[in-house]
Design brief:
Length: 500
């Protein structure tokens, strides 16, 4: 039996103006987790799309269990036992959870679907994975985190030889990550191989066996995890040594920027009371379904509150829609950048210009020269990898799309900035730059609410941390008081909610 499941030799893939993959070699063995690392735009997702058949390589060869295979479509990859969980959801939104999990492999008899067996199988699989989801719930009504769990369940519903996980934990909190890692370890024992892409570098040592590092579309080395230090790994990724930096937070002002008094929204938010000062960074975290994203959406007016009051700089404001929120100085970086944060078939420059056009206009005419100067400054400052400002947003990598959403709001000089998973899919340099921008915003008096499932991020960048559970604020920690373990205990219910 061939110990190598997948081998890719000399893979080349070119796009207009860029060589995305330059003679890349990569292989995956049975029962291993092979981590694929690199900065945004290094070529990781492109390599995986070549393996999946979404792209066809311009040069190179692919072997599955030692046999040459010409992967020209996703159907070919699936027929060879390859399964893919992409960074962005690839579900059918108009089907329920069970039908998405077993799409194409539904239990049937005589050509007729057996619904009872379908939902029974889905319930058993979700229970095995400890995913608390109703298999009859429509996918369009799920959060991005819940959608990710459905995709993971779908990949595990079949007898896969190799599973590719592209940022599988980017929206999962610690509790859900541990469940996923347990599933991966169990499947490794059965000989399943995993290609694992992540910007959460601590996970490399927690779950990985080998690591391959890409930089500018080239393979700069493959290493056993135990034989490479974190510092060397980062140096290989970025091409230089990075200085260790601790985030230094500015002192918040005394004046209040945002206050919520008894804000409720049906059953998802219950009597939320928060006060945030100008220049203060407050992280709001919790498990899947805790209500943190729903709180951000309510403040921004995506879904109007059903009770309570919102005050901006001491004045009560009625916010029934996002346009009103923006008018009062509130901006929102959403969790789902593709459907809510960008217009993918518009250019980088035009996406930046959407919320900034009125500010950059005179007598009804947009000053495009000023707009071009501003977006070029953000492209350079945030290190957005794009051939030029006229590239379509949909052609950027996921991490660079996230940076673009951030850039368009930074141009607004907001009073309150709501950021939902702002470093999702962002590389180490980009993450540092985002933290720098957040602290710079705070130093200018902007109140920042950071909605994050990454407890280490909350600990690093916050003046205060608020933990949500079942639509309530359950515990508050000041900077220096919390640990990841204490946050998790509050999130899962080992301490009683104290705020309501």
């Amino acid at each position: 039996m061939n110990d190598t499941l997948v081998e890719m030799r000399g893979i080349v893939k070119k796009f207009p103006g860029v060589v995305a993959l330059d003679h890349v070699n990569f292989d995956l063995k049975r029962g291993e987790v092979h981590v694929l690392l690199g900065e945004n735009g290094a070529g990781k997702s492109t390599l995986i799309k070549v393996l999946s058949g979404a792209y066809v390589a311009d040069e190179g060869e692919i072997f599955i269990e030692g046999q040459p295979v010409h992967i020209v479509s996703p159907e070919v990859a699936l027929s060879r036992g390859l399964r893919f969980i992409y960074q962005e959801p690839s579900l059918v939104f108009d089907l329920d959870v069970a039908r998405n999990i077993f799409l194409g492999i539904e239990p049937a008899q005589g050509g007729l679907l057996k619904p009872f067996l379908l939902y029974q199988m889905a319930e058993e699989l979700l229970r095995k994975m400890q995913i608390d989801l109703d298999p009859r719930k429509m996918v369009r009504h799920l959060s991005v985190t819940e959608q990710k769990m459905v995709e993971i369940a779908r990949a595990l519903a079949t007898q896969a030889r190799a599973i590719v996980l592209d940022e599988p934990t980017d929206v999962l909190e610690s509790y859900a990550r541990e469940r996923l890692f347990t599933i991966i370890r169990n499947l490794k024992q059965e000989g399943v191989g995993f290609v694992y892409i992540s910007h959460r570098y601590a996970e490399v040592y927690e779950i990985g066996d080998r690591v391959t590092i890409l930089r500018d579309g080239k393979n700069v080395g493959t290493f056993n995890i135990k034989e490479i230090s974190f510092e060397t790994m980062i140096e290989k990724m970025v091409g230089k040594t990075l200085e260790k930096k601790h985030v230094s937070l500015p002192q918040p002002q005394e004046k209040e920027a945002l206050r919520l008094e008894g804000v409720s929204r049906g059953k998802v938010l219950k009597n939320i009371t928060i006060a945030v000062k100008k220049g203060e960074i407050v992280s709001i975290t919790g498990l899947m379904g805790s209500g943190k994203t729903e709180l951000a959406e309510t403040i921004f007016g995506v879904y109007p509150k059903t009770g309570g009051s919102i005050y901006i700089e001491g004045e009560r404001k009625e916010i029934q829609n996002p346009a009103q929120a923006i008018r009062w100085g509130i901006v929102f970086l959403p969790e789902d950048r593709k459907t809510e944060g960008l217009i993918l078939d518009q250019t980088v420059r035009d996406n930046y210009g959407l919320p900034n056009a009125s500010r950059l206009s005179r007598l009804g005419f947009v000053r495009f020269q000023s707009m071009n100067q501003e977006i070029e400054r953000f492209i350079k400052g945030l290190q957005i990898k794009t051939p030029h400002r006229y590239t379509l947003a949909g052609q950027l990598s996921g991490g660079n799309q996230q940076k673009l959403v951030l850039a368009k709001w930074l141009g607004m000089n907001p009073k309150v900035f709501l950021l939902d998973e702002p470093t999702r899919g962002i590389d180490v340099l980009g993450r540092r730059e985002i933290y720098r921008l957040i602290t710079e915003l705070a130093s200018k008096g902007t109140a920042v609410l950071l909605f994050t499932s990454d407890y280490s991020e909350a600990l690093e960048i916050s003046h205060r941390i608020l933990v949500m559970r079942r639509g309530e604020i359950c515990q508050e920690f000041l900077r220096g008081e919390a640990t990841e373990d204490l946050i998790l205990k509050a999130a899962i219910g080992e301490v009683k909610c104290t705020s309501s």
